[in-house]
Amino acid sequence: MFRKTALALLLLPAIAYGQDRYATRAGEVSFFSHTPVEDIDAVNHKATCVADLSGGQIQVSMLIKAFEFEKALMQEHFNENYMESNTFPKGEFKGTIKGITAEDARKSGKFPVTLEGELTIHGVAQKRSIPGTIEVDATGALKATTEFIVKPADHGIKVPGGVNVAEEISVKAALDLRKM
Amino acid sequence: MKRNLIIAVLVLAAIGAAIGYYLYQKPMEKSVGGDAEMVVSAQELLAAFNADEAKAMSTYARTDEVIQVTGTVRAVDRSDPAKVNVVLETGDALASVICEFEPAHAPAWKEGAQVKVNGVCAGILIDVLLQRCAAVE
To answer: Do B125 and A62 touch (CB under 8 A)?
Structure first.
């Protein structure tokens, strides 16, 4: 679904939407959680994002298998036991972006924004309102950053009893969006 | 007799614990070693994902399975300091196969080169993603 929408947005002629579409295929998304036994952290260097500021729409998508851990066993357990990434290969956010207009993005500045929409992880969607910041640089590129909490239980991620996984995971995203 | 048995059990337990600790601490391989399970061209790989994503995931993107992708280099992207991304031609103007290398393992390929890459397939977003890549000589 993400792929069809993203490709459609990419293929639509620029004239119909002006110059207000921004995208990246190399966004960075990382997560971290602290437990008494050890810290769990992983990073994904291949998040894809398409944002249309005239329509106020944004979509972010990433492959679960693209999250890199330092330890091989941790990555294997993450994919096989918790995220079941063969069945649910992607994590996605689809929604609207409030707090920045196409006009705002034509000059340098820093804007607090709110992303409102659905966050789908492990096949389970949750409505979320996520605060973030968009910085417009001198070249007209947008740097979008955000940090928010995800609770594995909210997305049907089952953790066997006694296993060392936190109830809350801190997620950070840093997406450098270029005009399309 | 009983003492020897106790010692033997303790030694086995210690070996078991050592193996367990080694596996637990084993770092993730940043660039795959060994042989590929199968060979596929970049064009075929993208076509398979376009035709049936779930089937392509179970064929090409099994956990930790190394596949070999062959093709022509469309571009080499070094804009991300953490990775070198070799983009393979697929015949599709928008979508490609992206081969993600650690900078230390990145080959010095140029646009137009005919190449072979071993890696682990993570799936498809817009492009098919191959990770922990190693260049095949």
So the answer is: yes
Among candidates A74, A65, A85, which has minimal Cα distance to B28?
A: A74
* Mean pLDDT, residues A74-95: 94
Single-letter amino acid code for the residue at A147: E
Cross-chain residue pair B126–A48, CB shorter than 8 Å: yes
d(CA B69, CA B48): 13
CB atoms within 10 A of CB A148: 17
d(CA B53, CA B59): 10
- B131 contacts in A (CB within 8 Å)? 65-66, 68
Domain that holds residue A111: 2-11+19-179
Model-level pTM? Answer: 0.89
| ipTM value greater than 0.85 | yes
What domains, with CATH codes, occur in chain B? 38-135 (2.40.50.140)
Judging contacts by C-beta atoms under 8 Å, the chain B residues touching residue A85 are 63
Tens-place pLDDT, residues B52-108: 999 999 999 998 899 999 999 999 999 888 999 999 999 999 899 999 999 999 999
CATH number, domain of A146, equals 2.40.128.110
User: Which chain A residue shows the shortest CA-CA distance from B22?
Assistant: A73
